[in-house]
Task: structure prediction
Amino acid sequence: MRNGLIYVIILVAAVFLFSQLFPTPGKPTEIGLEKAIAMSQNGEIAEIIVDDDELLITTTEGTKLKTSVGILTLVELQELGLKLDGVDYEVKASGFDWGGLLIGFIPLLLFGALLFFLFRRAQGANSQAMSFGRSRARLFPADRPTVTFDDVAGVEEAKQELHEVVDFLKSREKFQSLGARIPKGVLLIGPPGTGKTLMARAIAGEAGVPFFSISGSEFVEMFVGVGASRVRDLFDQAKRNTPCIIFIDEIDAVGRHRGAGLGGSHDEREQTLNQILTEMDGFDTDTSVIVLAATNRPDILDPALLRPGRFDRRVVLDRPDINGRTAILKVHSNGKPLDKAVNLEVLAKETAGFSGADLANLVNEAAILAARRGKKAIEMQEFEESIDRVIAGPERKSRRISPQEKKISAYHEAGHALVAKMLPNADPVHKISIVARGMALGYTKMLSEDRYLMTRSQFKDMIATLLAGHTAEKLTFNEMSTGAQDDIERATKLARKMVTDYGMSDKLGPRTFGHKEELVFLGREISEQRDYSEKVAQQIDEEVHNIIQQAYKVARQILTKNKPKLVQLAEKLIAQETLEGEELNALFNETTPKPTLEPTVTPTPVSVKAPAKTKPVPKRASAIPQPLPKQAPATPD
Result:
């Protein structure tokens, strides 16, 4: 609008100047006073209008003329020879010529307006250039809380710790009377999607105080000193709005170890971090400004940032357990029409390892599916479908699969399910499907429990279950396909971890192998270096091979002994494509009749046209959940 107004002013000025330089047709022609008197004497004038110092003349032919008379009056003009006999004449009352004054000032007004807009535009550009050092933090007012602790579920211990922060912001005199000092900074630690940002907003909503929110990446710019200037401006604004909360999301973007830059390439980031350290250390003890920060990489933060006096308290927000998942599902399904048959506790059992964001996405996907199918309420079917979409991706019904590939996939998945059913330390099988999803031709879903410790027996059963698909293919068709690539890779990694990380090898004993060096200048990336001899490396390979071979033998023995059940499961899968729930359990418990014909054993290699990269078992939809190191709960891989 501003640019358009400038162009309009320039256009009006040009039109005015053009009208002054080139008179329009019909405008009175100016003549001399002597000629006007001569024309009156010759009877060529039909009308005369006296307008101040001009005579506006209309000839008998209709021509418009004008002449300047100065200060001469009409009587004086008659004495000079002007004849008015037979002429219509009129004398206009004299007054101030406002129209002429306005016309004379229009060019000046237009020029002044043009200069004003040019100066304003230059001033705006200058203010933008000078605003680089201003904080980009977004302020959420205290009178409009959008999130409270009621909107956060699954992290009860974290909420109890953060209630102290809320109590201090509401009534700090209670703490100060006892000499207690609230932590200046609280660091929220947890995997992505566990609700760190949501928790920070809930604290501000419960306390009813202003909430400044900014990301760690918004501090650093290409200009030197901008990050430190923004930090100073942010804390100045916070001190003017006390009591308040400053929330820095993804603080690891600016709070990494100092000295990690090679060649001084990260000096600006380190200056920003130094300014944050100075501002947090300079807070008065009675200043009601609390700094909240969130990160999923606490190991790369600078030690000076984590010392007492800056971030005094660390609150861990981990993935929720089954009770937490049930509570989160209730929060996100609140206000949505659910069918009476929907059981949130069953859904919580099926979603072991899901974060709060995953569960929110799960409920939203179920609502979208129900709306797409024209239903008035969300049924259990939509929730089950949403879990499969989150784990393995949407169905790909358009993918054309040959009957032979479909048969191989059926026996592959039936092998996973049957071995998992027979092993005592494996998770119960919940669903088998050979419907293509994502990049997978089929998958087996199991009900994983929340685990924080894993035993060697569980690992061995997991490896045997992983190898069961490959074993079933070889046992049935006397051939192997590329579909077991992901299973074999995961089984090998798990067996190597048992030997090198968990000390579960009888031959090598309880020790670890391989020094993991943390490369600070690469963001604390892990680089494993060998700290053992070639002889020990050979022993490690032998132990890994023995674990794999032993698990393979267990899977082969189970499938050979229960081959009729394997055939029954596979044939049922080929017919229905999906088996789950009570129907699957009934099929497991059903007595298997002796088949009249054994499955066809192909003596020659079967030509499978599937590409080498096709993985029938997706990474998150595999039969066995991938265990996490450091005693973390197992999640579906």
